[in-house]
Amino acid sequence: MSSQVTPEVLWAQRSSASEPEKNYIYLTINVPDVPPSNLKLDLKPTGLTFTGTSDTKKTTYHLDMAFYDEIDVDNSKTHHTPANIQMVLRKKELKEEYWPRLLKDSAKVHWLRTDFDKWVDEDEQNEAPEDDYLNQFGGGAGLGEDGGFGGIDFSKLGGGAGAGLEGLGGDGGDFEGEDEGAEEGDDDMPDLEDDKEEGAEEGKGKGKDSDAA
């Protein structure tokens, strides 16, 4: 039987009193090696419930959380990767002030941490370069094979955006571009060695100056 654990959750936020698209929560649920077929995500205005099983890690992840305030489910987005579940949750109430915390309950929990890669202070958020990440997250790439969990839209992240992808689950080979880079590096190595051998041959009888050249 697989053990059941509460996954690590990272969060950050932005706020706006006039622009809904700038009034949201970044949420990352770190659940490596959980395929879409093995998970259930129920997102509601007041909170979310997640259950997912990793066959490779023999672990079932379960999360039940109540938000500090309501979100707009229809304008929130979710993306599943081999390492995690990434979410941009639209806050329902337009308000300049940040939420004082993510959860309704003020008690601290060990599995929730601030996502410092995305977090900016409230008075500096207008200068923060968060738009690139947000555009990639919801940048018009239609629904993927994941389909939708409870009507949630899935969009495609570009080029490994989002720090939550780094160092999790050992699934780097599943991301486009990484395998290509490794293959190119392997192909280059024999050429470099050949160049050194040729240089050594040419350098015979010419002294050390040819090596420096």
From TrEMBL:
Bias (Acidic residues): 173-200
Gene Ontology cellular component annotations, sorted alphabetically: cytosol; nucleus
Region (Disordered) location: 150-213
CS domain: residues covered: 4-103
Family per similarity comment: Belongs to the p23/wos2 family.
Pfam family, one: CS
Ranges of Basic and acidic residues composition bias in the record: 201-213
Organism: Capronia coronata CBS 617.96
Protein known as: CS domain-containing protein
InterPro entries, per the entry: CS_dom, HSP20-like_chaperone, p23-like
Domain of life: Eukaryota
Gene Ontology molecular function: Hsp90 protein binding; protein-folding chaperone binding
Bias type Gly residues, positions: 150-172
GO biological process: chaperone-mediated protein complex assembly; protein folding
